[in-house]
Amino acid sequence: MAAEPAPSPAGLTDPTVLWAGATARLAAGQLMEAVPLAKLALQGAPDDPRIAVLGRDVGLALFNASLWEDALPWLTRAAGQEPGNPVVRAALDRARLPDYLPAEVTDPRSGKRLERYSPREGDGYIYVIDVVGTCNLRCPTCPVGNTELRPRGFMDMPLFDQVLEKIRRESPSPSPVINLFNWGEPLLHPNLPEMIRRIKALGMRAHLSSNLNIKHGLAEVIAANPDELKISISGFSPETYSRTHARGNLELVKANMRAVRAEIDKSGATTRVWAGHHIYKTNQHEMAPLKAMCDELGFGYSPMAAFYMPLERVLENLEGRENPRDNGIVAELLRTPGEARAAAALGRSDRFDCELRFNQTVINHDGTVALCCTVYEAQNMLGVSFLDEDFAALEARKYEHSFCDRCIASGSQYVPAELEVITAHLQPAAVVDPT
After folding, report:
1. Is 190 helix (H, G, I), strand (E, B) or coil?
2. Tens of pLDDT along 362-371?
3. What digits encode the pLDDT tens for the residues 227-243?
4. What is the rounded CA–CA span in Å between residue 67 and residue 289?
5. Phi, psi of 383 (to 5 degrees)
6. Which residues contact 140 (CB under 8 A, 6 or more apart)?
7. CA distances from 177 to 19, 105, 161, 181, 345 (A)
8. Shortest CA distance to 30 belongs to which of 69, 4, 65, 71?
9. Hey, what domains does the chain have and what are their CATH numbers?
10. 411: pLDDT confidence band, cut at 50, 70 and 90?
């Protein structure tokens, strides 16, 4: 929803002055200040070529800040002015609501009409198949490490084939993303390479996330050419890593990172590999050396604030209940769950649907379906096998589940931020002086 332009101070309506002020603030990364000035400059001189360039840059800056709903009108205008610009076109295509998603849905529990949006987690519908029902590590921010273990197991191949065939028939998008992980470590599965090959043979995309604490089978996995491999890593020294990736061996991870590079070069795999660096108060000094290693190997590097899971433990923490199984890890997060929720609330309105309901289906190793990818306990499963109900019935079960009420009430649902909501919280009725 586009905000009305901020009123301009008397005497400061000159589009050139406004353009200069917006350009300077945009260069400084001050989006909240740049956008209202750019809007006023555009109103005053819509045909000025300098302002057209500014509008393109505003749209791309909003897109790169994941403020896609704010970016859309700017990108649409820029695409009309520069139809051959591939960067603008790619951003616009990604920010638009995809054709396979209805624009709105009525929440059956609240009766509210909720808007959908372009999903942030993937450019197609996502099926999460947790092919391994356990993990070799016991990370304190993960339910395998901080919650009583649930039944373990491996998805067998006949079940996997039936699941894939049903996905092929029902997927809302033609080329869905198949995440072969949720809480489990997929590289433990002896048939993982064949699973990847069968996914790709059906025109789907196979994504992996691994702690890389395995000693066998890596060459076969890379040769199967998964579309993406995320390396989940926290510390880059034995002291930090052993705390946050408990039971892990950092030297084995480093050796395996080099082995992945070698196997990609050997097999010609096109797998996108990147390290997701979980940042705590205790390991911020290790960002540079890990990034240097990723640069050396040609891998992507994405530092991210470590967060606490599963959602059941998060909500308990928000309610003031401590979890002795997490070994005090909450104190080492950059933001506690409460602080993270408060920060997220600054940019959120209540008009959006939760992406984890409308763009994902989560399937456990035994074929049962979870409410979403953030929950772990039995009461938050849907109580049905993926094979036994069609897509519409499973989606209805998600929207009817009572745990969503608790999640939404706590502000934990997965919805996008909007610039005008952030501005309203931080600068009520502010007028930006372009000088």
Report:
1. coil
2. 999 999 999 9
3. 999 999 999 999 999 99
4. 30
5. 75, 25
6. 146, 243, 244, 246, 325, 326, 327, 329
7. 42, 23, 16, 12, 29
8. 65
9. 15-99+419-426 (1.25.40.10), 126-409 (3.20.20.70)
10. very high
* Residue listed under structure tokens 């990818």: 373
8 Å CB contact between 367 and 386: yes
What Cα–Cα distance (Å) separates residue 362 from each residue in 185, 192, 307, 369, 371? 15, 18, 20, 6, 7
CA-CA-CA-CA torsion sign (377, 209, 92, 175): negative
Q: What's the whole-model pTM score?
A: 0.93
Q: Using H for helix, E for strand and C for coil, what is the string for 344-394?
A: HHCCCCCCECCHHHHCEEEECCCCEEECCCCCCCHHHEEEEEHHHCCHHHH
Beta bridge partners of 104: 115
| Torsion angle of the four alpha carbons 241, 242, 247, 252, in this order, in degrees rounded to the nearest 10 | 50
Q: Which helix (H) or strand (E) element contains residue 259? A: helix 250-267
- pLDDT, one tens digit per residue, over 341-368 is 998 888 888 999 999 999 999 999 999 9
CA atoms within 13 Å, Cβ hemisphere of 140: 19
Task: Round to whole Å and give the CA distance between 130 and 302.
Answer: 23
Residues in the chain, overall count: 435
